[in-house]
Amino acid sequence: MLRSEADPRVFIVGNPDKPEVPPAMERLTAFIAERANLVGTDLGLDARRATDAQADFLVVLGGDGTMLSVARSLGPKQIPLIGVNFGKLGFLTHFTVEQLIDGFDDVVADGGLITERMMLNVRVEYADGRPGCGGICVNDCVIHAGPPFRMTSFDVELDGEQLTRVSGDGLIVCTPTGSTAHNLSVGGPVLMVAVHSFVLTPLNPHSLTHRPIVIDSDIRVVIRAKEVNPGTTALMDGQVSCPLRAGDSVCITRSPHRCRIVRNPSVPHWHNLITKLGWGYLPNG
After folding, report:
1. Where are the domains of the chain?
2. Which candidate, 177, 157, 156, 175, places its Cα nearest to that of 167?
3. What is the pLDDT of residue 2?
């Protein structure tokens, strides 16, 4: 069917490692083609073809990890992502296939459903002059001790001022979106996605005084490696890793670009935290 130029331009990508994704992609391809300008499909995690096709929306079939990969692949050209969940928790993938089909027309018509998510710029600067490593993150940068898992030590600077030295298993620097990921599992605070802040969370610190802190997102965070293991790494969104040696620095700032995620209007804002993680539930008995 020929569509009007005024109809939204939609591209579909899907995780090829999930066997249930290809049939769902086939179904949504036929459905969306009847209701919008379908400008392409791709069974893969690199969404740059969607930017070339000037898509208005990018439907992503997979789990939260798929959404993270797709968002990073877009770089500075962030397209609103409509996540269809084929994973576990689905903090970023807000829709089922049926929910998207039932509400598609309203979802693509209501710009108020697009949430702007802060991202991190991460740059690893190597002391020996090797080319740097890094990229953008939606969730977090985790500096992990790595094998053989002996205690590590890092100096933390905020806007050039020495804050502390953390000895332990490493550090997490996360966005509000990433506050419900690794940060939450180690006791860090949960932030609303609209808050303009980062969280710095020590991993198993060898101190009773080191606790997570929330800092303004305009601050430049520099983490300098003092004592590391052969396997110590800076891990971005759990998917991209940069090895660290003593003397190397990890520089983290707020990205000028924002990940754009379309929320499901049929699901309350706090649905995932309450129903999937049981936040605020009292123990039985």
Report:
1. 9-110+265-276, 119-256
2. 156
3. 45
* Catalytic residue, candidates 64, 169, 237, 248: 64
| pLDDT beyond 90 at 120 | yes
What's the fold here for domain 9-110+265-276?
Rossmann fold (3.40.50)
Q: What are phi and psi of 56, to 5 degrees?
A: -85, -30
| 159 assigned to active site | no
Question: Which strand (E) or helix (H) includes residue 105?
Answer: helix 97-109
Look at residue 58 in the predicted model and tell me its pLDDT. Answer: 98
Tokens at 240, concatenated: 């991209």
- Give the model confidence (pLDDT) of 23-60 as tens digits: 999 999 999 999 999 999 999 999 999 999 999 999 99
Q: Phi/psi at 92 (nearest 5 deg)? A: -105, -30
Nearest to 255 by CA among 215, 198, 212, 213: 198
Name beta bridge partners: 52: none
**DSSP 8-state secondary structure symbol assigned to residue 219:** S
Instruction: Judge whether 62 and 86 are in contact, CB under 8 Å.
Output: yes
**Alpha-carbon distance 234 to 143, whole Å?**
4
Quote the mean pLDDT of the chain. 94
